[in-house]
UniProtKB/TrEMBL annotation:
Top-level EC class: hydrolase
Major subcellular location class: membrane
A GO term from the CC aspect: membrane
Native organism taxonomy: Eukaryota, Metazoa, Chordata, Craniata, Vertebrata
Region of interest (Disordered), ranges: 840-909
GO molecular function terms noted in the UniProt entry: 3',5'-cyclic-nucleotide phosphodiesterase activity; metal ion binding
Protein's name according to its UniProt entry: Phosphodiesterase
Residues at which Zn(2+) 1 binds: 564, 600-601, 721
UniProt feature, compositional bias: Polar residues: 853-896
Compartment(s) of residence: Membrane
Cofactor note: Binds 2 divalent metal cations per subunit. Site 1 may preferentially bind zinc ions, while site 2 has a preference for magnesium and/or manganese ions.
Species whose genome carries this gene: Esox lucius (Northern pike)
Coiled coil: 800-834
Domain named PDEase: residues: 481-817
Length: 945
């Protein structure tokens, strides 16, 4: 094969470029590229002296940069090699890299690579944190570049207003010209790269700027990759810190010290420091001492003039916990540390506790503000280099401790990301204090509750002498006696029944039972008698003490007192026995239902649910709905939890759960809002009962389904709670006045305490409207339940009959009141017409149509005023529902007669009508008026606000 001359080959390739491209693409390109990326390949560019670079040499430099980026895992090493190449390309005498960072909230630039040139070594140019030069952004050309984020080319630094020569003085170097550019990550500043003193020329040229900007993409890429990698590692550390600290915080909820210790020790590997300490602050705000001359008197300490926390506490570290991670791991706990302890000697923890700021000391030895110990702090020879100190703040914004972290493991000072991680940790620890505080408060509240409950039971619980008032003179017993229970509390029921009042004489089985003639103690005895008549007395042996304590649990208020509670229980007893509703329930059920009736309003305050919410009563915060009903239920359960009062103590667990469940349903059912929801269901049960021909089959069917029995029981509670409306007129009229008096008392409270205008039903100035409100209350609340019960069991019909009779009485009073208002209106109209006629006569003319029109207007206006007085229009504004038992029987303990307005002060003076008015006919003929009236009555009797 003939040898081809080199010149001929070059000439052929130059004349055939397509062939040359195809040949090199097929033969040499993969190999060439592979050789370029070999790790052991040496650069083909001669950098010993500055010269113009060929395209091949420049490409070689670019591939060297890419290879360095691929192989170097350290940011400083990769950026150092880039700066060496760049200094050769632009012929810079020296280049430096300044990293942007935040220190205690202030931005600054710190040297990372300094005085890099084409022949430099990394060890010589890498700046140790102890020797770094820091530029604030308001000083020097570097600060100007970082602030404006623009490249600057200064031919003569002496002509620049931003030039600062303090670095030249330190280095004994003369800076003539500068080329500096910012390195950005999006809009965020990362670093500033600066080249000084152009070799072979007086200053850097425009071509140098273009070269710098072109190759700056490599620097951007290098810094961005390592910056994102660093951020990823920091976020991973932060997540681990929070995760592990959370797991330990919730393991320990009783003590703050143990909580902090567990969390901080668990996360020690993620904190990236050699040592850290936590100083716990005394949380006492005021202190007292005992004087020697007066040992029994406490006086305040002398005025304290030292540093204080933002909330005014003296800064006193009562304990320091020191975690040593360098060398052998160790934990030291120093109680009551002296002020010269190395962790407190510098004054940094005190300053952080005083100001509540995060402090990052990057060079402790050179810091002028704090006095850090210069030499080793202990025998291990460990020296403080840099410190990051943060306050631990709880949810109340009180500083509870100060955490200080010393010496980052890689030798660098703590940066902004370290501050973020440590701040997240201290913030979480501060919030976790809430767990310990809450647990401590919960324990205190539990203890306080037990104390208060014991105090309440002491005053409510039946005493021995009070029991003797019920069981006087009886010494014969048929049951065994327990140690804690005196023998006279457990007599045989035959002997005890001789002491109790007669059921026939007291009319205990009658729906028209009246408590007016019975004393407080008599009602207690009758309560016990009901349990005997139910046949359950042999099963419960603490009956006497329970009934007496129950009566003492009711407050001495106008209406919702023990008399009302007993009447509800007695009506429940009558419905079961006389009304024959007990056929659907067991003895245990009947016992729970009568007990619920007696307990249903215990500790009533004389105000409704809406008032509890408006006044901010703790009951409203404790119970979301049916506020008072749930309070009555819990109070009754509290009595039953006392062994001496628990009438269910001999029941099995399942039986006990059953009776408590029935009491829950029964007492909550006194909320009339629930009554309106259950009316349709009850009506369907009554309709279904009419489809059975045999009572036995119907009774068997009812007993099989718990839900049906509970619905009937709930309606029974409503019928009992409203039972006073179905008493004889002589009883019911008095009870209605007691109810009204209690509501007027609440209205007075709303006007004086809450400074609000009460609704008409609560306003004693609207007392004359009581008959009208009673009619509406009967029509739209009471009539349904008694009508349906009369259909359900004919034995309950007497209650409906008395309800209708009371409706006639109230309607007569209402009509009498309306007649008086009409007469007053007519008198006003007549007086106005006479006045107009007199005026016309004086003017010498006859009354005109305009005069008569004026009288008509007066008449119309007067009528509207009367309507407003009688509640026809104004009452429509009443939309809230207030719980009351207007129709329930009550005996007013105080004996006061409330004000009755225009229709007298004694029920015996009321005029009775002989006209027979049918209930439903009245409802149809005056539906609009009655619905307006009901808006008042609903407000008066519903328990939902």
């Amino acid at each position: 094969m003939a040898v081809v001359d080199k010149d001929v080959a070059e000439k052929f390739l130059d004349s055939n470029p397509d062939f040359a491209k195809e040949y090199y693409d097929a033969k040499f390109r993969p190999k060439v590229i592979s050789d370029l990326f070999k790790d052991n390949r040496t650069s083909q560019v001669n950098t010993s002296s500055f010269h113009e670079l060929s395209m091949f040499e420049e490409s070689e430099i670019i591939f060297d940069m890419v290879r360095d980026l691929q192989n170097n895992l350290q940011m400083e090493k990769a950026i150092f090699k880039f700066m060496k190449h760049l200094s050769f390309l632009i012929r810079a005498d020296k280049m430096s890299l300044f990293m942007y960072r935040m220190r205690n909230g202030t931005a600054e630039l710190a040297t990372r690579l300094f005085n890099v040139h084409k022949d430099a070594n990394l060890e010589e140019c890498l700046v140790h944190p102890d020797n770094e030069i820091v530029f604030p952004l308001d000083i020097g050309i570097l600060g100007h570049v970082a602030t404006t984020k623009k490249t600057v080319n200064i031919p003569d630094v002496l002509q620049s207003i931003h030039y600062s020569d303090f670095v030249d003085e330190i280095q004994e170097y003369k800076t003539k010209c500068v080329l500096a550019t910012p390195i950005m990550n999006g809009k965020d500043m990362v670093a500033v790269m600066m080249a000084v003193n152009k070799i072979g020329a007086p200053h850097f040229t425009t071509q140098d700027e273009e070269t710098l900007k072109k190759y700056l993409n490599f620097a951007n890429l290098i810094l961005r990759v390592f910056h994102l990698s660093y951020l990823h590692n920091c976020e991973a550390r932060r997540g681990q810190v929070l995760l592990w600290s959370a797991s330990k915080v919730f393991e320990e909820m009783t003590d703050i010290e143990r909580q902090f210790h567990k969390a901080l020790y668990t996360i020690r590997d993620f904190l990236n420091c050699e040592r850290y300490s936590v100083g716990l602050l005394d949380m006492t705000k005021t202190k007292v001492i005992f004087r020697n001359d007066a040992p029994l008197s406490c006086v305040p300490l002398p005025p304290y003039d030292g540093p204080k926390t933002p909330d005014g506490r003296e800064i006193n570290f009562y304990k320091v916990i020191d975690y040593i991670l360098h060398g052998k791991e160790e934990i030291k706990v120093i109680s009551n540390p002296p002020s010269d302890h190395w962790a407190l000697f510098s004054g940094l923890p005190t300053y952080v506790a005083k100001e509540g700021l995060i402090c990052n000391i990057m060079n402790a030895a050179q810091d002028d503000f704090f006095s850090f110990q210069k030499g080793p702090v202990d025998s291990s020879g460990w020296v403080i280099k840099n410190v990051l100190s943060l306050p631990i703040v709880n949810k109340k914004e009180e500083i509870v401790a100060v955490a200080s972290f010393y010496n980052r493991k890689d030798g660098k000072p703590f940066d902004e990301q370290d501050e973020t991680i440590m701040e997240s940790l201290t913030q979480f620890l501060g919030w976790s204090v809430l767990n310990a505080d809450t647990y401590d408060k919960w324990n205190k509240l539990e203890n306080r509750k037990d104390i208060f409950q014991d105090m309440v039971l002491y005053h409510i619980k039946c005493r021995t002498d009070e029991t003797q008032n019920v069981l006087v003179g009886k010494v014969t017993f048929s049951h065994g006696v327990g140690e804690e229970m005196p023998s006279y509390l457990i007599p045989g029921w035959q002997k005890l029944s001789e002491v109790l009042p007669s059921s026939e004489t007291s009319e205990l089985f009658e729906f028209h039972f009246c408590d007016f003639e019975h004393s407080h103690l008599d009602l207690v005895k009758l309560g016990i008698k009901m349990y005997y008549e139910l046949g359950v007395v042999d099963k419960f042996h603490t009956l006497t003490r329970f009934c007496y304590s129950l009566s003492k649990g009711y407050r001495q208020i106008t209406y919702h007192n023990w008399s009302h509670g007993f009447n509800v229980g007695q009506t429940m007893f009558t419905l079961l026995m006389t009304g024959d509703l007990k056929r659907y329930y067991t003895d245990l059920d009947a016992m729970a239902m009568v007990t619920a009736g007696l307990c249903h309003d215990i500790d009533h305050r004389g105000t409704n649910n809406l008032y509890q919410m408006k006044s901010g009563n703790p009951l409203a915060k404790l119970h979301g709905s049916s506020i008072l009903e749930r309070h009555h239920l819990e109070t009754g359960k509290t009595l039953l939890r006392d062994p001496a009062l628990n009438i269910y103590q001999n029941l099995s667990r399942s039986q006990h759960e059953h009776v408590i469940h029935l009491m829950d349903i029964a007492i909550i059912a006194t909320d009339l809002a629930l009554y309106f929801k259950k009316r349709t269901m009850f009506q369907k049960i009554v309709d279904q009962s009419k489809t059975y021909e045999s009572w036995d089959e119907w009774t068997k069917y009812m007993r099989q389904e718990t839900t049906r029995k509970e619905i009937v029981m709930a309606m029974m509670m409503t019928a009992c709670d409203l039972s006073a409306i179905a008493k004889p007129w002589e009883i019911q009229s008095k009870v209605a006045l007691s109810v009204a008096a209690e509501f007027w008392e609440q209205g007075d409270l709303e006007r004086t305490v809450l400074e609000q205008q009460p609704i008409p039903m609560m306003d004693r100035t609207k007392a004359a409207d009581l008959p009208k409100m009673q009619c509406g209350f009967i029509d739209f609340v009471c009539a349904f339940v008694y009508k349906e019960f009369s259909r359900f069991h004919e034995e309950i019909t007497p209650m409906l009959e008395r309800l209708l009779n009371n409706r006639k009485e109230w309607n007569a009073l209402k009509e009498e009141h309306e007649a008086k208002l009409a007469a007053l209106e007519a008198a006003k109209v007549t007086e106005e017409e006479v006045a107009n006629a007199t005026i016309a006569a004086k003017q010498g003319r006859t009354p005109t149509h305009a005069d008569r029109q004026t009288g008509s207007q007066v008449h119309t206006q007067t009528g509207r005023q009367a309507d407003r007085q009688s509640g026809t229009h104004a009452d429509r504004q009443t939309g809230s529902q207030v719980h009351t038992q207007t129709g329930s029987q009550v005996h007013t303990q105080t004996g006061r007669q409330p004000h009755l307005g225009a229709w007298g002060t004694n029920h015996t003076k009321w005029k009775k009508t002989t006209n027979s008015i049918h209930l439903w006919g009245q409802a149809k003929s005056k539906r609009k008026t009655l619905r307006t009236d009901w808006s008042i009555s609903e407000t008066m009797n519903s328990s939902e606000a």
